[in-house]
Amino acid sequence: MRLEANRDRNMLEQVERLNAEIGAVSVEYPQRYVTLLVAEIDTHKRIIHYVNCGQQSRALFRAKTARLRV
User: Cα(49)–Cα(32) distance, rounded to whole angstroms?
Assistant: First the structure.
């Protein structure tokens, strides 16, 4: 992932390339898998952009209200 991150800043394209490469070398091991969450955090705008791979559950915790949204 570090090599992909150095190529460009488009998270979706990074994950697509990474998925293709992992798939190409893992044909012999179909029972194994990789999970990944890639996130870009803009602290000034207070926005998170993310790509979630392999894990469908996600949660949002709001510190100000101490609320958890699943």
Answer: 27
pTM of the model: 0.60
Residue spans of beta strands (DSSP E) within 7-56: 36-42, 47-53
d(CA 18, CA 3): 10
Q: Based on the number of CB atoms within 10 Å of its own CB, is 2 exposed (0-12), middle (13-18) or buried (19 or more)?
A: exposed
CA distance 55 to 2: 20
Can you tell me the distance from the alpha carbon of 64 to that of 44, in angstroms, rounded to the nearest whole number? 17
CA 68 to chain centre: 20
Here the tokens at position 49 are 């952009």
> Each residue of 9-29: pLDDT tens digit?
788 888 888 888 888 888 787
What is the rounded CA–CA span in Å between residue 1 and residue 17?
Answer: 10
